[in-house]
Amino acid sequence: MFDGLFNVPDDRVRWNLGKGVENMADTQVSDHAVEERRGIRQTAPFILSALSGGHGIFHWFSQSFFVMLPAVVATFGLSGLQVGAISTTREVVSGVVALPGGVVTDMLRRHWGLVLAGCMALFGVGWLIMGIAPVYPVLLLGMGVVAMAASMWHLPATAALSHQFAHRRGSALSFHGVGGNIGDVLGPALTGGLLLVLSWRGILSIYAVVPLLLTFVVFWAFRDIGKTGPQATAAQGFNEQMGQTWQSFKAHPRLWGIMTVAGIRGMAHVAFLPFLALYLGLETQLGMSKPSLGLHFALLVGVGIVSTPVMGYLSDRVGRKVVLIPGMLGLAVLTALLVPFGEGIGLIVVIALLGIFLFSDQPILTAGALDTIGEGVVASTLGVFSFSRFALAAASPLIAGYLFDSNGIESTFIYIAILYVVASVILLAVPMGAPRHSAGDGHHGHGGGHGHGHDAHEEGQDDHGHGHAHDEEQGHHDHGHGDEEEHGHH
Q1: Residue 448 within a domain
Q2: Taking a C-beta distance cutoff of 8 angstroms, is the pair 262, 255 a contact?
C-alpha cells in the first residue's frame, strides 16, 4: 500500500573535492560525523514514524479522558450541557489558536522543532491542571491548555508531512492518523483497567508526567525538521504570510466548500465521542463497567487502525469524494442505529462498523485541501481550515448536551446522523481535483528526496509531474517550489 512512500535515496552527504588534499581527510571525517548524527532525523521513515508516534501520545491521553468521563461527571455532578461545554472549550480554544498559529508556524519554519517540543510540554501541563482541578471551571481551564497544545502540534506536523510526501498526501496523512489511532486504542483499554485501582485524578496526574519527559526527546528528534529548503532562509512577515494565504483561497474557491464539509463533519465528530461515553458508561444508560467501556472504545478506534490507511490509499487512487461520501453516509446510518442495537453482539458490530469510517474522513478532507494549495502556505491554510472547522463545531456539543438532557440519548445520536447527511450532500456539490498520482509516484518525491533528478522534472512539470490536464485547478504554478523544499528535508 505504501510502496514508494519511503523511496528516498540518501544523497545528502557530498565531499568537497575542491579543497586541498591536506585538509580533505579531516574535513570529510568531521562532515561525515555531522551527517551521521543528523541523517536519521531527516529521513522520510523517521519523520513519518516520529510524528505519528507523537500524534499517538496526544490521542492516547485525549481518548482516555472519554473513558474517565463518567467518573468525572460523578465527581462534579455534571449535566449533559456541562459535559458538552468541556468539548466546546476544546473546540473554541483550538480554533482561536489555529488561525494565527498556522500563519506563525509558516513564519517560524526554522523553529518547528522548538514549537513541537513546546506543544508536548504544554500538553503535560494541561493534564496536570485537570488532574488537580478542585472545581469544574478549573477543569475547563486545563482542557483549554490541552486543546492549545494539541492544536499547535498538528500544524507543523501536518505541514512537514505535506512537504515531505507531496505525492502521497492521503497515504502519509492517513499513516500519521494511524499513530493517533494506536494511541486511541491503547489509551482507553489501559485507562479502563487503571480505573479499577486508581481515581481519574490519579491517572491524569501520572499521565501528565509522560509528555513533560518526552519534551526533550521531541526537541532532539525534530530540531532540524524545518531548517532546510528555500522557505527556511527567509521568513515572511505576518501580514505578508496572511495575504499569501488569502490569495490562495481566492484562487481556489473549492477550499471554502471543503472547509464547510470539514466543519459540519467536525460538528458530528466532537458531539459523538463524549456522548457515546455517557451512553455506554452512565448508570442511567447502559451502565458498563469501566474496563468494558475502555474495551468498547478500543474496538471503535482499533478498527480505524486498519481502515484509516486503507481509506487514505483508496482516496489517493480513486479520488477523495468516492471514499468520503459513502463513508459519511455510513456513519449517519450507523449512528442512528446505536440505540436500537444497543445491547450485546449488535452493539459490538455497530461500534466496529463505525470505526471503519469515524477516523478516516478527516485526513482525507485535509489531503483534499492540500492537493489544491501552494507549498508556501501549507500551515497557514491548515490554520484557516482548522479555525473554520472548530468555529462550526464549537456549539455542537452544547446542542448535543441540551438534547441529551431534554430528550434522551437517542435524540443526540439522531442529531449527529443528520449532520453527517448534510455534510455528504454539500460534498456532492464541491469540486475536488483528482489526487496527484501517476506511475512517477514511486520515484518522484515521496519524501521529496531526489535532488539529482529534479531539474528536468521541474522544467517540464510545475506541479510535481502530475498532469496539467486534470490538475489545472490544483495550481500548477503554486507547487513549482515544492520539490525544492521536499528534498531539503533530508
Answers
A1: no
A2: no
What mean pLDDT comes out for the span 316-326?
A: 88
Question: Is position 160 within any domain?
Answer: yes
At residue 36, does pLDDT exceed 80? Answer: no
Helices 254-281, 361-370: axis angle to 10 degrees equals: 170
Helix axes 238-251, 378-393, angle to 10 degrees: 70
Distance CA 76, CA 49 (A): 39
The span from the CA of 369 to the CA of 383, in Å, is: 12
Backbone angles phi, psi at 85, to 5 degrees: -65, -30
Cα–chain-centroid distance for residue 18? 46
Higher pLDDT, 311 or 384: 311
Please report, for the domain that includes residue 267, its CATH number. Answer: 1.20.1250.20
Tell me the three cell numbers of residue 189. Answer: 483499554
Cα separation of the two ends of the chain: 23
Return left, alpha or beta for 450; rule: phi > 0 is left, psi -120 to 50 is alpha, else beta: beta
Asked whether the predicted pLDDT for residue 50 surpasses 70, the reply is: yes
Contact residues for 103 (Cβ-Cβ < 8 A; gap 6+)? 238, 241, 242, 245, 379, 380, 383
Number of domains in the chain: 1
HSE, CB side, 13 Å, CA atoms: give it for residue 13: 18
Task: Please report, as a single letter, which amino acid is at residue 44.
Answer: A
pTM for the full model? 0.67
201 has a pLDDT exceeding 90? yes
Residue 254 in any domain: the answer is yes
How does residue 73 score in pLDDT terms, banded at 50, 70 and 90? very high
**Residues 6 or more apart in contact with residue 232 via CB below 8 angstroms:** 109, 110, 226, 488
DSSP at 433: P
Task: Check residue 28 and give its pLDDT.
Answer: 44
Q: Which residues span the domain enclosing 245?
A: 42-225+239-429
**What DSSP string runs through 344-403?**
HHHHHHHHHHHHHHHTTHHHHHHHHHHTTS-GGGHHHHHHHHHHHHHHHHTTHHHHHHHH
How are the residues of the chain apportioned to helix, strand and coil, as percentages rounded to the nearest 5? 80, 0, 20
Q: How far is CA 419 from CA 156, 261, 328, 423, in A?
A: 30, 10, 9, 6
Q: Which of 137, 56, 141, 146 is nearest to 94 (CA)?
A: 146
Does some domain include residue 194? yes
Cβ atoms 382, 102 nearer than 8 A: yes
pLDDT at 290 over 90: no
